[in-house]
From TrEMBL:
GO biological process, one term: peptide transport
GO cellular component: ATP-binding cassette (ABC) transporter complex; outer membrane-bounded periplasmic space
Organism: Bosea psychrotolerans
Entry protein name: Peptide/nickel transport system substrate-binding protein
Span of domain Solute-binding protein family: 72-439
């Protein structure tokens, strides 16, 4: 699947005339129509780290704390907290009147069980789980977390913005985190409407009238989450030309991720605003399966890493406008606190060196299965580049194209490729989410308990804990530098470049928030 596949039909785009641009104003002021980055197939944001599911989670669920734009933790569902003098006991009190979409009150037991389930999957939360002695309700609105040692990053963890602690009813949170919940019930500003959900076509949310918003101004995942629209419809439009036409004609209000090639055309439409809302940007990555041949061999992984030319990936996925992307040969991305330059020795971008390394690795023609989406313009071209690159290296490549939903389902498999497993997938993510040694699953070496690919490194885990409990900033920086270097040496993940996206929306839509997700709160029609 080449970049031109995503551009198919773009030549048919035409700028809308006055009659067409008037359609947006004719829409009911109470409904927002949004075209998300991809189809929503997985509804459980704890079960998967897929960004589209994380964004869905923000509609439906709320969090105990949230990061504001300055990355400072702020109370959200929590009214506040108390910490014992020795730092080992945390008492968290919930705001009064919190209610789930099924009408039941939010209780401490819901928060406790949600945290337990989250810690089964989340790499950062697993560090907390290692030092939790007990968690128990204190009364109808308060609960206590007792620790075996102080956990200095508690609020940072509870407030994290990507794959956060979404609170659900205890009855659902009792579901094993390796299985999806069977109902979508939260206490957030919007409720999911299951009867109108059609995967591949439409997702519907309705304003939850019983939601109690905070009074503070909204800031990223913190502050007031005011739902101004009574109804939000996600229109699944995988063809960029179709999405662009819909936005130009006012048939949708907001297109989350316009294809970069179509940006110049959108810039000519007076009724469309283009804006970089996630200024930290996103990283593109290649992830290999460390459990199965050939990438259970670190020498084979290293050979692939040596061959990667990030410019090829960025041009394929993001186009030729270099103001929107840059190379970043480091697992701490450009613009994040621990970025310490380009590791050119580990990523020499040399096909010759890679071929020599592969020859010495012991690779014996094992099949490499690349699972790749046909409906995700930011990700699909990455797989194309990798497939061509590995063929040049002399590897036995099988390219399996499918929709993104199938990719995120299949990447859960730990079986050999002959039994439905996989060797490589690609994705993108928030560089700020991947900027913390405790939070970034790209560098964490948790093995079977970790992220897809299951990189296993006791040394990496020790460095993550060294960072977490470091006595000062200098010690944290040292541990982070060692961890980033180690993870790249061992090819935990291959970085493919950093990019920013100009989201596009009708100019009569106001209240657009900055951050790493397309937040629905605060938005209104002028």
């Amino acid at each position: 699947m080449k970049r031109r596949t995503f551009l198919k039909g773009a030549t048919a785009l035409t700028l809308a005339g006055p009659a067409m641009t008037g359609r947006a104003s004719a829409q009911a002021a109470t409904t927002l129509k949004f075209a998300p980055q991809a189809n929503l197939t997985a509804l459980d944001p704890i079960w998967t780290t897929a960004t589209v599911t994380n964004n869905h989670g923000y509609y439906v669920y709320d969090t105990l704390y949230g990061h504001d734009l300055d990355m400072k933790p702020q109370p959200q569902m929590a009214e506040g907290h108390e910490i014992s003098a020795d730092g080992k006991v945390w008492k968290i009190k919930l705001r009064e009147g919190l209610v789930f979409h099924d009408g039941t009150p939010v209780k401490p037991a819901d928060c406790i069980q949600s945290l337990k389930r989250w810690a089964q999957r989340d790499s950062y939360a697993q560090l907390l789980a290692k030092v939790v002695e007990s968690m128990a309700p204190l009364d109808e609105r308060s609960f206590e977390i007792k620790l075996t040692r102080p956990f200095p990053m508690m609020l940072d963890l509870l407030a994290k913005a990507d794959s956060p602690l979404f609170v659900m009813p205890e009855r659902l949170a009792l579901t094993d985190a390796n299985k999806q919940v069977t109902e979508v019930v939260g206490s957030g500003p919007y409720r999911f409407v299951p009867g109108e959900f059609v995967s591949g076509s439409k997702v519907v949310y309705e304003k939850f009238e019983a939601y109690k918003s905070r009074s503070e101004p909204p800031s990223r995942g913190a502050g007031g989450k005011v739902a101004n629209f009574k109804r939000i419809e996600w229109q699944i439009l995988p063809d960029p030309a179709t999405a662009a036409n819909a936005l130009i004609k006012g048939e949708i209000d907001w297109w989350e991720r316009p294809l970069s090639d179509l940006q110049p055309m959108l810039a000519k439409v007076p009724e469309v605003v283009r804006e970089v809302t996630d200024e930290a940007g996103r990283g593109a990555i290649m992830r290999m399966n460390h459990l199965q041949p050939p990438f259970n061999n670190p020498k084979v992984r290293a050979a692939v890493r040596m061959a990667v030319n990030q410019e090829d990936y960025m041009r394929a996925a993001q186009g030729d406008d270099t103001s929107l992307w840059q190379t970043s040969r480091n697992l701490w991305w450009r613009g994040t606190p621990y970025y310490d330059g380009e590791h050119e020795d580990l990523m020499p971008q040399s096909l010759e060196k890679a071929k020599a390394a592969l020859k010495e690795s012991g690779y014996n023609g094992e099949k490499v299965v690349i699972i790749n989406p046909t409906d995700f313009p930011d990700i699909g071209p990455l797989g194309d580049v990798t497939a061509e690159l590995l063929k040049q290296l002399g590897m036995n490549v099988e390219f399996v194209a499918s929709d993104w939903g199938t990719v995120i389902q299949r990447r859960n498999s730990r079986e050999p490729v002959e039994k439905g497993g996989w060797s490589i997938f690609h994705t993108t993510g928030s560089t700020m989410a991947w900027a913390s040694p405790a939070q970034s699953f790209l560098v964490r070496g948790q093995g079977a308990k970790g992220w897809f690919g299951w990189y296993d490194s006791a040394k990496a885990e020790a460095l993550a804990e060294e960072w977490l409990y470091a006595p000062d900033e200098a010690a944290q920086k040292k541990a982070a530098a060692q961890l980033g270097r180690l993870a790249l040496e061992e090819t935990a993940t291959v970085p493919l470049g950093r990019f920013v996206i100009k989201t596009a929306y009708r100019k009569n839509l106001t209240g657009m928030l900055k951050g790493s997700a397309p937040y629905p709160w605060g938005l209104k029609r002028a």
